[in-house]
Specification:
Elements: E1 6-10, H1 18-28, E2 32-37, H2 40-50, E3 57-60, H3 66-80, E4 85-88, H4 107-128, E5 136-142, H5 154-174, E6 179-186, H6 200-210, H7 219-230, E7 241-244
Parallel strand pairs: 1-2, 1-4, 2-3, 4-5, 5-6, 6-7
Bound molecules: ligand 0WD.
Ligand 0WD binds next to helix 1 and strand 5.
């Protein structure tokens, strides 16, 4: 499905990362992939995970550093010549902001969370556009806390609301170049980032009881949806937020 396509994947931290599930789904369909890692602490993880993927590139990229972003895209242009898709699976908020009341969010925590978790999509979309010569597809990861209050999700919910809105504005801007932009709103999955959210265990239990499918989503299922969105099977879908949450979002009382 993705033979002769090249993709860039942001946000692999370890084998549990949603980005890694996306990478596995895309690699299995023949995509050639470039991975970015944030800082030296994650370099070894990403290199080990990707060592058996033929032709995979691994480049550093902390999105708070524009020089890193520029260098990463230059390397991809040099090695791959073009880009067909980009998967953005990055988020961060200081730990203290993910506990207690939202009203206590500091200016610094707000700015950091919004910069890394929301602005980075626009930043990466702008850098990717010149490489998407035959059109392209950009996918990001969101969460239900963007639209409803989820205890302790706090400023990350506000960042995800900004992210989902950015998806719509980017879809309009880039549609003229046949570049599609979509979000996947994933149900909670026990990853490194998720462990930063308090009461994750209780949340997983609640969803397993209340969602229509009576279970939690697996990273593999989010990866498969990302694969659909970067493939030509979704060629008329842009600006959307697609739920991959075992149906939890449709439930009222
Ligand atoms: O329940 C979940 N796990 C859900 C996650 C449900 C719904 C959505 N998501 C979202 C997250 O908010 C995020 O946007 O999916 C995305 C991926 O999250 P993940 O796979 O759950 O978490 P993780 O494996 O930790 O990957 C996120 C990575 C970072 O990992 P750590 O944990 O080291 O912060 O985002 C990257 C980093 O690799 N990251 C950055 N990358 C570049 N520059 C930066 C940065 N400044 N900051 C964080």
């Amino acid at each position: 499905m993705l033979e002769n396509k090249t993709g860039m994947i942001f946000g692999v931290a370890n084998q549990r990362s949603i980005a890694w599930a996306c990478a596995q789904a895309c690699a299995a369909q023949g995509a050639k992939l470039a991975f970015t890692y944030q800082g030296e602490r994650l370099k070894e993880n990403v290199e080990k995970l990707t060592k058996d993927l033929e032709g995979a590139l691994v480049v550093p990229c902390d999105v708070t550093n524009q020089a890193d972003v520029d260098a990463a895209f230059q390397t991809v242009e040099k090695e791959f010549g073009k880009l067909d898709f980009l998967i953005h699976s990055i988020a961060f908020a200081p730990k203290e902001a993910l506990d207690g009341e939202f009203v206590m969010t500091s200016r610094e925590a707000f700015t950091t969370a919004l910069e890394i978790s929301a602005f980075s999509l626009t930043q990466l979309a702008l850098a990717a556009t010149p490489l998407m010569k035959d059109g392209g597809s950009i996918v990001t990861m969101s969460y239900y806390g963007a639209e409803k209050v989820v205890q302790n999700y706090n400023v990350m919910g506000v960042a995800k609301a900004a992210l989902e809105s950015s998806v719509r504005y980017l879809a309009e801007d880039l549609g003229k170049q046949n570049i599609r932009v979509n979000a996947v709103s994933a149900g909670p999955i026990n990853t490194l980032s998720a462990r930063g959210v308090k009461n994750m265990g209780a949340m997983l239990k609640h969803i397993a009881e209340k969602s229509p499918l009576r279970r939690n989503v697996e990273a593999r299922e989010v990866g498969n949806t990302a694969l659909f969105l970067v493939s030509d099977l979704s060629s008329a879908i842009t600006g959307e937020t697609i739920y991959v949450d075992c149906g939890f979002n449709i439930i009222g009382v």
